[in-house]
Amino acid sequence: MSVQLSTGEKSLPARLSIKKLAWLMGGRHIAPNLFALSVWGFVTGVAMVNYGLAAWQAVLISFLVYAGSLQLTVAPLMALNAPLWVVFFAAMIVNLRFIIFGASLYPYFRHFSVLRRMVAGYFLTDVGFVLFMNRFRAQRPGRIGMYYGYYMSASVLLWLVWQVSTVLGIYVGSYIPGAWSLEYAGVFTLLAIVIPMVRTHPMLVTVVAAGAASWVGQQLPFRLGLFMAIVVGVVAGVLAEKYGKQGRKTKKGGAK
Amino acid sequence: MSVEYVLKATALMVLCAFITRVGYLLIGGYIPLSDNVKSGLRYAPVAALVAIIVPSLLPWAQGEMPRVGPELFAGLIAGLAFFRFRSILVLIAVGMGTLWLLRWVF
After folding, report:
1. How many Å apart are CA A139 and CA B102, to the nearest integer?
2. What's the pTM?
3. Residue A35: its chain B contacts at CB < 8 A?
């Protein structure tokens, strides 16, 4: 597996072991999510073929683009032969959140070479990002030794599992009854990532606000609601943090 | 869908993925962020995940009435199961089990 990686740098043994540790940790932390992600990848593969893409086209897209929610958004549009600018626009809306992720990751990654940053960008996923931020948010950016290894071992494992399951979905998916609704297994997993993150009052406000916005936002075209909900959730969290300090009490908070 | 159309669309998707995922990591140094924005970014992951989850559990198709169905209850029960047992496999099993059961019953 991807535990060993030559760093290409002259490092002290102690430093090297930190890097190895980072690779091990990344793999270990992503592991509990892999089964669920494989279900999701499988579902994505099934969906792309169901929308009329040829198997080789679906495989090509999966490897080049590697963005599940983007693919699931764009495939139905392509099935309708939507104009290319519509395809591009919808893809951008769905993927806008990665700009926010990139901004969060930047302080940690800015010391890396251009090539490494591009590689990191290709492997950027929701789950990988959340995992990384959960691990390193508490520390101030600066312990460069661990970032790349941790991020890459988690991300590459995720990538492998995702691609294998997507290709499987593309080729055998048509034999699986749609009534099983396997896509929900993927959705449920995300709950397991969100729930432990909601520890503070402002986080709960973010959940409620983003949830409400994304529910109503389904009425917007191009899945614009996804981006809108992120903005609403972030703003709500910031406001709750700011004003929560003075007037604590009110608000109960919903489920999840 | 002609092959040409698919290839062009794929090229655009690659462009999109590049701009959104690599863009900020490459040129972020030239776009300084205020402290407010930085602290706000802490809420982005949770907001993004919730924004992906909610439409699946509470679908509301354009031009139709909002739907409250088995998906929501399956999600809630799966969430509770996870809260109690802290296991993703339990969560998936309980969630899918509930979903199938509710759909079978109703």
Report:
1. 45
2. 0.74
3. 88-89, 92
